[in-house]
Amino acid sequence: MAAVGLVEIKAAAQRIGSHVHRTPVLQSSALDLLSGKELYFKCENFQKTGSFKARGALNAIKCSLEAGVVPPMVVTHSSGNHGQAVAWASKQLALPCTVVVPEGTPVAKCEAIRGYGAELVFCTPTPTGRKETADKIAAETNGIIIHPYDNYNVIAGQGTIGLELLEEVPDLDLILVPVSGGGMTSGIALAAKHLNPNCQVVAVEPQGKQLKQSLQQKERLWPNPPQFLNTMAEGIKTQQVGLLTFPILCDLVAEVVTVSDQEMAEGCRLIAERMKLVVEASSGASLAAALTAKVKEMPGKKVGIILCGGNLDLDKLPWQHFQ
Amino acid sequence: MAAVGLVEIKAAAQRIGSHVHRTPVLQSSALDLLSGKELYFKCENFQKTGSFKARGALNAIKCSLEAGVVPPMVVTHSSGNHGQAVAWASKQLALPCTVVVPEGTPVAKCEAIRGYGAELVFCTPTPTGRKETADKIAAETNGIIIHPYDNYNVIAGQGTIGLELLEEVPDLDLILVPVSGGGMTSGIALAAKHLNPNCQVVAVEPQGKQLKQSLQQKERLWPNPPQFLNTMAEGIKTQQVGLLTFPILCDLVAEVVTVSDQEMAEGCRLIAERMKLVVEASSGASLAAALTAKVKEMPGKKVGIILCGGNLDLDKLPWQHFQ
């Protein structure tokens, strides 16, 4: 845990600051009324590449360069936001990049990654298939793998979200963070621990993840091999959190809130209607959590809501799956 | 024309400043690339009530109060953004309000107006039917009618958009403004004339409006009675511009650009995809205009794009009409 403290998060902010946006923190009186809290939305949907992932990816690659390693290839596996982010970050640093994506990935996503100049390699669509293919390419090219969350420099990069949010609203009582592998949740929780120890970090999960049981027992209770959950929220479909992130989450996550796909979709719709923002399903999950009885009953008034990204299928918006 | 100058626009800004948002001006490198210009998006989709109309409505009602008239009723006719804006502005000032809407107006729009505490009265769905019903109610209640554009105080209120935009980007070469009755276009053009006479104001119209012919001949060539155009862009479906706005537009509009519904829809989609913003079809029209050969060939690099509002049917987004 000592591997990422406030020093590392502030160093990450310094390192990536000239490339990424300091995203705005927006409010909505209509949504305050609906939730009974004061909501502060951190708009990572406006971030470079359309999601927060740009922060961690760029920090990790720049750390490698600072350590004197100029990788002949930057490699990762992700068809989604992390894939785009690593491709984008590599381009910023003029490094070649290969992104492993599962067969059947929509053309639009492949084009987005190629748009940043990365090469695509297809693999079997399972967590294990992805990892093996990425490992092989890294070995062959003598490249570095940028893991989406099990990497302390990625965690420190995502921690800059918490740093910025708490600089803007220092007395937040809660922060609602959609959780997948746990990189963003860990980073934000570490920032909060140092900047405002009274601020509770709540992990927001899709149905079936069952994070709470594992955190409570401090034991990885998930079935293996790792699975994807059956959720519309692409960004948070990984069931297991990481090996590096797990102990951080055990230590620092105050509560876990589970939301259904329909609740996430309704969250996205409310954000479009009331805030005029396009956000992806995992961002809708953050607002959905604020509207649950569990969060409404938690003490404290000021709630940070992480709108983690805005990349989604515009032909069928989240709420249109339930019409 | 002398009725609205920079003094009146600055007074309007002062009058409404504590109630309305100073909306942000956003940029998008992807859309700059697509247009070949530097685009500055004035985000009135973030404005109170979801459109710029809040500015003019509030200014007009406050001017009436300042003149010593406390109206027993504030009346207007509009099922759309102006109706919501007048209802909202009346509520800010604790005045009763009646909004005349055409029969067949979608329930969601009626609810939005009622949500601001206004009473609804239904009328036959023609421009003439609206006006007659509103006139009758105003006469019966001794109320004041807030016209959506043919009112100098409304024009001055909308002019504050131009004031803010040119304060932020003083050296704009062009501003693209979606035109309906011409209140916003007049207001912005008047602000530009005083703040940067080199900045050209371009009116963006839907097909069938034929504004250019009337402006060139300085003669109202439109058929009577006034008609609505067959366009998806609710906000700009009025064919004729106003009697007060017409001479201002004749004098100050440098160019008219016509865009199809499909181009507007594509504009909305690009704004959702690249900027993560929800905007209505008339706002999509502004970006669509920037992508026409006519605007690309106009001299000057810095282009203001008015995103006039973000109120739309989320069940069927503009681009989904063409799938």
Commentary on this structure:
The structure is a homodimer of 323-residue chains. Chain A has 323 residues and is of the alpha/beta class. Chain A has 13 helices and ten strands. In chain A, the strands form two sheets. In chain A, strands 1-2-10-7-8-9 form a six-stranded mixed beta sheet, with helices on both faces. Chain A has a four-stranded parallel beta sheet with strand order 5-4-3-6, with helices on both faces. In chain A, strand 4, helix 5 and strand 5 form a beta-alpha-beta unit. Chain A starts with 5 loop residues before the first helix and ends in a 16-residue tail after the last strand.
Summary keywords:
homodimer; 323 residues; alpha/beta; Rossmann fold; 6-stranded mixed β-sheet; 4-stranded parallel β-sheet; 10 strands; globular
- Enumerate the strands of the largest sheet of chain A in spatial order, edge to edge or round the barrel: 1-2-10-7-8-9
Q: Could you give the order of the helices and strands of chain A?
A: HEHEHEHEHEHEHEHEHHEHHHE
Distance between the termini of chain A: 45 Å
Do you know the CATH architecture of the largest domain in chain A? 3-Layer(aba) Sandwich
**Which value, in Å, is the CA radius of gyration of chain A?**
18 Å
